[in-house]
């Protein structure tokens, strides 16, 4: 058996060839690639401390060697000719070095490829206001945002500034011009970049994630002053999203925040991923809330209207849909199996009743 430590290069080739999103390399386990949301073990021996130490040395930029030695973590980019570009996080766990690679796409997928409802294109082409894309980690928020940015880039002559951590999709200028800024590499943090963006003559600002009150406040201010702001939140649906934004603020500020949100919000797209019935991967399930007069009133005063979920369910005229309405269509069309649909439904029993009532399932 060779004493030479294992190289990371073959594993990056494996990541690309399997269409995976991430590669995990840690001591004591074989490398694993994430494909369709699941970690799959590569058929190679478990990694040793020498292996991962060698891998870090292969990819770590020279100017970060001292930083990694002192802080035990580093974020950077790595390009491999003929394979692609990767965002890398190197870190130390239990005294040994580990790495996670995220494959960076060049160019966005279009709406048809992603199965996005057409109303999301309408939201992307709004001239101003706030559009939020929400969902748990790994639900495709970044991919949806990239598709929306690409649509704007294709049809509007505007200046787009993105603030991302990390940059996961690279965009080339089309009708628009795009400046992609990466937190820690190009700017200190989201809040600093948002403040600076207001001096960069933007028409569209994309915020990779609204993590704290300062970022939320700056995003609302930008939307209020005539910019289109696209942002993400780790929330499960439209109602949770509104509550999360309001809860960032102190009680005496919340009434004003509700009023500002009701005025500036254009829509909320909440996402989940579900296995396709034919076993070819996963498909998107989306709840879409479009801000209308009634939803705006419900944001300002939740007691004045039915629950947001009911307004969405009744909002077909405005192209709104709940998760369960989308799941109903996916099961009806044979895209998703019944068990998988029920497993992620918001109201599993009600969905099952609807499907049975329509004669779609027994």
TrEMBL record:
Residues 198-212 form the Bacterial type II secretion system protein E domain. Pfam families: T2SSE. SMART domains: AAA. InterPro entries: AAA+_ATPase (IPR003593), P-loop_NTPase (IPR027417), PilT/PilU (IPR006321), T2SS/T4SS_dom (IPR001482), T4SS_GSP_E_ATPase (IPR050921). Belongs to the GSP E family. This is Twitching mobility protein. It comes from Demequina sediminis. The gene is pilT.
């Amino acid at each position: 058996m060779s004493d030479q430590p294992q190289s990371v290069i073959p594993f990056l080739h494996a990541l690309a060839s399997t269409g995976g999103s991430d590669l995990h390399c840690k001591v004591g386990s074989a490398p694993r690639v994430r494909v369709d949301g699941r970690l799959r073990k590569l058929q190679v021996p478990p990694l040793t401390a020498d292996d991962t130490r060698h891998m870090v040395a292969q990819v770590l930029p020279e100017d970060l060697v001292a930083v990694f030695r002192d802080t035990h973590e580093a974020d950077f980019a790595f390009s491999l000719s003929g394979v692609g570009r990767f965002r890398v996080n190197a870190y130390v766990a239990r005294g040994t070095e580990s790495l996670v690679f995220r494959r960076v796409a060049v160019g966005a997928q279009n709406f048809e490829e992603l199965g996005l409802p057409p109303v999301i294109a309408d939201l992307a082409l709004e001239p101003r206001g706030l559009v939020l894309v929400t969902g748990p980690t790994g639900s495709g928020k970044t991919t949806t945002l990239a598709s929306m940015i690409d649509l704007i880039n294709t049809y509007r002559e505007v200046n787009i500034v993105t603030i991302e951590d990390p940059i996961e999709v690279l965009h080339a200028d089309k009708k628009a011009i795009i400046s992609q800024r990466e937190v820690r590499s190009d700017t200190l943090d989201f809040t600093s970049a948002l403040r600076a963006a207001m001096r960069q003559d933007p028409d569209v600002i994309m915020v990779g994630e609204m993590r704290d009150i300062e970022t939320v406040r700056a995003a609302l201010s930008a939307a209020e002053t005539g910019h289109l702001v696209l942002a993400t939140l780790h929330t499960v649906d439209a109602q949770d999203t509104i509550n999360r934004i309001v809860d960032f603020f102190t009680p005496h500020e919340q009434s004003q925040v509700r009023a500002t949100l009701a005025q500036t919000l254009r829509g909320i797209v909440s996402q989940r991923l579900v296995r396709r019935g034919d076993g070819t991967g996963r498909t998107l399930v989306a709840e879409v809330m479009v801000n209308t007069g009634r939803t705006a009133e419900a944001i300002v005063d939740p007691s004045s209207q039915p629950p947001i979920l009911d307004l969405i369910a009744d909002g077909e005229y405005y192209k709104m849909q709940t998760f369960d309405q989308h799941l109903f269509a996916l099961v009806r069309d044979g895209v998703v199996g019944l068990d998988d649909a029920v497993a992620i439904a918001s109201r599993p029993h009600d969905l099952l009743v609807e499907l049975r009532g329509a004669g779609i399932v027994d």
